[in-house]
C-alpha cells in the first residue's frame, strides 16, 4: 500500500489517478480518502488526482497522542504527500476540516497552492460560542473513546447539516455513515481534541487571510448553518475569492451534489489555469 511519511514519522495512505495538473483532495472529519471517489473519477480524466487519509484515519497511521493532531500537522501533512510524489504545487480541494487545512496551506506556503476550493468551511468559528464549541469537541472525543465509533456515528448522521444528504440520497447517506462507524475511535477522538477543538477561529486572523492572493472558490450549502457566516467572512477577506451557495444543501457537498460540485470546481480550476481568475475588478483582467 502506498504511503507518504511526515516529518514526525506518521505514514499517510494515498491513492492517485490520472495525469496532468495535480489536484489534491483533503477530506472532512467524518470522511476519509474514499469519500472523494466521485471527484477522483471525474477529474482524473484530465488531471493527476491524489486523495489521502489524514493521520488518525486508517489505513494511515493513528498516532497515540492528541498532541500529534494539531491543525499545523494537518496542513503540513498535505505537503508531505506532495513531496513524496515530487509534486511542487497543486490545486487544493477541501471539505470542512480539509478546507481549513487548505486555507492554512495557502497562508503558509502560497507557492505550493495553485488554487483552493473551500467547501463547507468554518464550523466552530463563532467567537461568541467558541468555548462552548471546544467543550463539545472534548465531550465528543470522550464519547468516541467510551462508546466507540458506531455509537457516535448514529448521532453525527442526524446533525442538522447532514439531513439534506439523507433526504436527497438515503443510500449514499447510509453508506457514508457506515464508513464513519468503522473509523478508528482513538484517531477520531484525537482529531476531535487536537484539530477540531484546538484550531484558531477564522475570525481571529482577518489580516493574515487578506494577504492570501491564492485563487479561492468558497462553496457552502444553504442549510449548513454553521458554515454560512464563515463563508461570507472568507469571501469578504480573501482578495481572489468567489462564493457560491448550493440550494437546499447541507455539509457533505461533494457527495450530496456530486455532479454540481465537480462541475463548479472544474470550471473554477479551468479559469485559474487560463489566468482568468483573480482580481475583484474585471477591468484589471482586460490585459490578459
Record field, number of beta strands: 8
Weakly predicted, low-confidence segments: 282-288
- Whole-number mean pLDDT: 94
Q: What's the SSE pattern? A: EEEHEHEHEHHHHHHEHEHH
Count, helices: 12
Radius of gyration equals 18 Å
State the secondary-structure class.
alpha/beta
Helix content: 40-55%
**What assembly state would you assign to the polypeptide chains in this entry?**
single chain
The biggest sheet amounts to: 8 strands, mixed
Query: Roughly how many Å apart are the termini?
Result: 44 Å
Shape: globular
Spatial ordering of strands, largest sheet:
1-2-4-3-5-6-7-8
What does the secondary structure layout of this molecule look like, with pairings?
Blueprint: E1 3-5, E2 11-17, E3 21-26, H1 37-43, E4 47-52, H2 71-84, E5 90-95, H3 97-108, E6 113-119, H4 130-147, H5 149-156, H6 163-168, H7 170-181, H8 185-196, H9 206-210, E7 216-221, H10 225-237, E8 241-246, H11 253-256, H12 258-273
Parallel strand pairs: 3-4, 3-5, 5-6, 6-7, 7-8
Antiparallel strand pairs: 1-2, 2-4
Helix pairs in contact: 2-3, 4-5, 4-8, 5-7
Structural description of this entry:
This protein has 288 residues and is α/β, with parallel strands linked by helices. Helices cover 44% and strands 16% of the residues. Strands 1-2-4-3-5-6-7-8 form an eight-stranded mixed β-sheet, with helices on both faces. It is globular and about 50 Å long.
Main attributes of the structure:
8 strands; alpha/beta; 16% strand; single chain; 8-stranded mixed β-sheet; 288 residues; disordered C terminus
